[in-house]
């Protein structure tokens, strides 16, 4: 099996329940993780640049790069939810004294791509979270509507499909929800796979 084949993301016409759960988890976690990494990266880089004139910014910048290596490592592990083959790291070994380690860290591609991914993950996480939550809440809301739609007021109807509590529209909502389920599974699978490929391409 070639390296390219081994690195293919898991994708099927309609993914199984286990893969669907992993896709949903990966997409939903993208938002809180993205907020954390973006906040850290922007704050740490700003402080490092602002304090560079006092020389305090230099060790702070090195600590930032080291932390970004760890962020990249964690993100490679999280991507295992949606990719087949492990994403191998190409981080430069940090050996020798403080000066040698600092030089290796400054020239480490993994540290800089980890920093870049820390910033990019916020918009990516927002998009993935929003799409996954919207699709699944709509599909499951329609499917389960007979359990709770009876309690909705039936006056001031504007869109009968969404507002009516009649039996006919309730059945129609369930049918639409059932039709949306496989579409939602495929859409989240495609989005998770695309995000996983992006992480693999940037972080390896």
Give the topology.
Blueprint: H1 3-6, H2 17-50, H3 57-78, H4 98-106, H5 109-143, H6 145-148, H7 160-163, H8 167-203
Overview of the molecule:
The protein is an all-alpha fold and 204 residues long. It has one domain. It is built from eight helices and no strands. It has helices at 3-6, 17-50, 57-78, 98-106, 109-143, 145-148, 160-163, 167-203. The longest helix has 37 residues, at 167-203. The chain is elongated.
Order of helices and strands: HHHHHHHH
Number of strands: 0
The averaged pLDDT comes out at 84
Structural class per helix/strand content?
mainly alpha
Summarize it.
With 204 residues, the chain is an all-alpha fold. The chain has eight helices and no strands. It has one domain.
């Amino acid at each position: 099996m070639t390296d390219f084949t081994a690195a293919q993301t898991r994708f099927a016409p309609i993914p199984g329940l286990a893969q669907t759960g992993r896709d949903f988890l990966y997409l939903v976690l993208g938002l809180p993780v993205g907020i954390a990494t973006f906040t850290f990266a922007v704050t740490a880089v700003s402080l490092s640049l602002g304090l560079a004139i006092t020389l305090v910014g230099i060790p702070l910048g090195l600590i930032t790069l080291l932390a970004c290596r760890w962020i990249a490592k964690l993100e490679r592990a999280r991507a295992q939810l949606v990719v087949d083959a492990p994403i191998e790291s190409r981080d430069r070994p940090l050996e020798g004294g403080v000066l040698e380690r600092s030089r290796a860290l400054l020239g480490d591609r993994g540290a800089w791509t980890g920093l870049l991914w820390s910033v990019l993950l916020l918009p990516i996480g927002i998009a993935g979270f929003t799409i996954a939550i919207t699709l699944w809440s709509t599909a499951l809301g329609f499917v389960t509507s007979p359990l709770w739609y009876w309690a909705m007021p039936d006056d001031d109807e504007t869109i009968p499909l969404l507002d009516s509590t009649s039996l006919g529209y309730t059945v129609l909502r369930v049918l639409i929800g059932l039709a949306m389920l496989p579409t939602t599974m495929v859409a989240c699978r495609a989005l998770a796979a695309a995000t996983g490929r992006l992480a693999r391409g940037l972080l390896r």
